[in-house]
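Sorry to interrupt, but I need a hand with the structure work. Could you add the entry underneath, on a fresh line?
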Amino acid sequence: APLERNMVLVEVNRLLSMREAAEGRVQVAVLELKNVVGIRPEEPLRVRGDFIELIGTLQPLAEATEQALGLRPDLRAARAAEALAEAQIEQARAGGRPDASLRAGYQRMKQGFMLDGIDERGRLAPIEMTSHSVTFGVMIDLPVRNKNQGTIEAAVAQAEAARRRREFLELTIRREVASAYARYDRSARAMEIFRVGVRGQADANLEVIRKTYELGSKTLLDYIAEQRRFYEVESEFVDAILSTYQARVEVSRASGAPELVKR
């Protein structure tokens, strides 16, 4: 009896230790989440939503891929960089072509002397003269140093690099969407297996052991050991739920879901 009592105490303390460790991990995760969203540690954290409808019908993979290629901000930025590089090529080429511009001008000048003269009516009047001049012409800028060829080649190289980065990003996005779908499919299946074939059986086993313990066929140590196994199954089921949730979020991120794109 003393040995059995000691074994029972060991199992109880082991369960309490597992519970304390799990609660500690939860508290640390909550504090890290508060830090990410900009909340002070002492402020309450309220999370919207639940894990009830994790498994649902997703849009076809082809549609999700096309959506990602059209809405992903990183790809849109890469395309904008490629368009800018193409525009820089045209700018460099324009700098290597002759450029003509028209110019025209008008001047009005008034000159005089510190003397007076006699006008046509015989009166004294200052001696002065007003002149008008109009100028016009054509100015042609001729490029030098091989028609700006060096700048053009540099712009072409930058455009080629931007194009390759955009193409590589498109391939990466296609892979990310396919990987996210595969991960979600496997995680959802694993969660359903746990829910239907593991968790329910573990609960039934615990109930059987409890009843046999109450009838005296099993010891308290047997009941505690079965309860520990049930808690381990519950912990694995929670991990399966979390994995499915993370996979669902990854599907939304990889496919560029509109609700995740900030306008």
Notes: DSSP finds five helices and two strands in the chain.
